[in-house]
Each structure stands twice: as C-alpha cells, then as structure tokens.
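Example (one chain per record):
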Amino acid sequence: MTAVKKPTLESARKTHNAPIFGRPEELGPEMGRFANVTQMIFHPTEANPTAPNAGVLTYEPGGGFPLHMHDFAQVWYVLEGECQFGDRTLTPGDMVYMEDPHFEYDMHTANGCRILFVQYPGPTTGGRPIYDGRFNKTEKPNVEEENLAQ
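Predicted structure:
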C-alpha cells in the first residue's frame, strides 16, 4: 500500500500561494457601471492581472441593468432582496453561473438586492473581467453611453 503524502505548511508555502482575505464592510462603497453600489474586495491590477472581480453589488430599489454581453465568466449568489432577471425572480440563496461568452438578461429590482459576485477570466475565450471604469466610477453613469457588447 502506498503511503498518502501530506504537505506541511512549510512545504506548501514554498510552491503555492496562501489564501487572501477581505471583507466588503472594510471597503468604502464605489459607484458601479449601472449606478449600483460596489464593494469589490478583489479585482485585476497591473501586478495581478488574473485576479477576479469579486465582491458585493448592491442595487437600490428601482435599480438594475439592460441586456448586455461579456467574454469572461461569472457567478452570482443572491444575499438579500430579490430581482427580476429575464423571466426569473432571483431570491436569497439563488446562485447563477454564466459561462464565457455569455449574455445577461435585463435585471430590475423593485425593492433592492445584494449580490455576491465573482467574474473571472473566461476559460474558453480568455476574456478578462474589467474593473477600472466599471466598478469605480466617480459619478453616476449614463447607461445609454455604456458599451453593452463587452
């Protein structure tokens, strides 16, 4: 019988990256592409271009977005509230996976919702999530001016 090889913390640190931690409530809110409040814990940077966009999106009552498309992949998990996503109502506990390339149905919320959100490089397309100019707006965006095909 072959012995099971178990790593030590010391050996693991030599060859693998350690977990990185963050909490949304430790971040100041930013304005998102669709006038939502974003708290992106992780996002691509020059030093780490393959990091995901990951955090919490808050849509105020009456918020939402139009049908649009992306070349990257993403996963949502509804934390609070509810929203209409295409012909489906998403409620707390719903998880949505969108493989690359994908489109997103129009989404609207009457009473507000919070979504845990992870976008990552598309394994099929190689498309990367975009942070700058999408999740860190300095003023309320005009949705009519957004490129909805990426």
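Caption: The chain has one helix and twelve strands.
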